[in-house]
Amino acid sequence: MKERTDFAKQISRFLTTYLPYERSVSNNTIKSYSETFTQFVMYMRDCKSVKVEKLSLKHFTKDNILGFLSWIISSRNCGNATRNYRLSAFCSFAKYLQYKEVGGIEVWQAIMSIPKLKTGEKPVEYLSVDAVKLLLAQPDVSTCRGRRDLALLSLMCDTGARVQEICDLIPMSLRIESEPFSVYVIGKGKRGRTIPLLKEQVESLRIYMKENFLFSPEKLQHPLFYNCRHEKLTRAGVTYILDKYVDKARKENPAFFTGHISCHTLRHTKAMHLLQAGVILHHIRDILGHSSVMTTEIYARSDSKQKREAIERAYLRLSPNIESENLWEKDKGLLEELMSFR
């Protein structure tokens, strides 16, 4: 059996030991970093003719990283945001290598010096209140599957939680025995937060949980939302469910569902509805689980109605009032001058 290369050894330690145990990085981040290096291996194989079993740390250079970043933009149609995220994975690995492979510290620091590209801020896409009502009217609540889907979509719309946060929920995450109702989610960086729930949302959850015996002690650690194999729903599974009902709702009213509606669209929708209801940004930040209110400000910049109302509230009349009658009629000199041009 051939000995593994230094690249293979270090990338394995980086993903299985350093990130989870020394940096306490979430499983989602580790999966994403793993995907980044999988693509890098493919790039080196297909574009640089370096076989996987021959790939070593001598190939992990600034030039090859820059080549890869250009490749994912030109060949994989990735945007600058995705490109920057892939670069973050490489920089994290390079930072790790500074202490594990000290002899190449100049190379690692060169990789860490690669600048990120500017990303244009896209307008936030969200659904109207009527669109959300139409979407939630699609599941067939006469079936067990339909009641599960209604509970799932309602919870996503009511909390604005990330799709992975919803997937990771267990019955113990919920406090719906008595008011105030809430759900506890674990977000990015393993930061937990409590999100209030509305009474209407709690009713659909109770119905779903009762018929699936999710209040019983032995089910408290069971996934809240699961598939036919009793495995917790994945992000792909939730996306499939959402897409199914968006397609049905779009047939009823295409104007409500223009463009692509993703799970994150429901998160944006919750944020925008809170903002339009007058909830301050700091509270929206806490509900969404943003680490900084600066991230939340994107919603304020996207709400044209609030912009207009703010301008109207701040408006000062600077110009003089203009009477409705024709002022030129009072100015006989002007009238005579105009008449002279005939």
TrEMBL record:
Cellular component terms per the entry's GO annotation: cytoplasm
Species this chain originates from: Dysgonomonas mossii DSM 22836
This protein's record includes keyword DNA-binding: yes
Name of the protein this chain belongs to: Tyr recombinase domain-containing protein
Example GO molecular function: DNA binding
Domain Core-binding (CB), residue spans: 5-98
Keywords: Cell cycle, Cell division, Chromosome partition, Cytoplasm, DNA integration, DNA recombination, DNA-binding
GO biological process, one term: cell division
Source species taxonomy: Bacteria, Pseudomonadati, Bacteroidota, Bacteroidia, Bacteroidales
Presence of the UniProt keyword Cell cycle in the record: yes
Compartment annotation: Cytoplasm
Domain Tyr recombinase: start-end pairs: 122-312
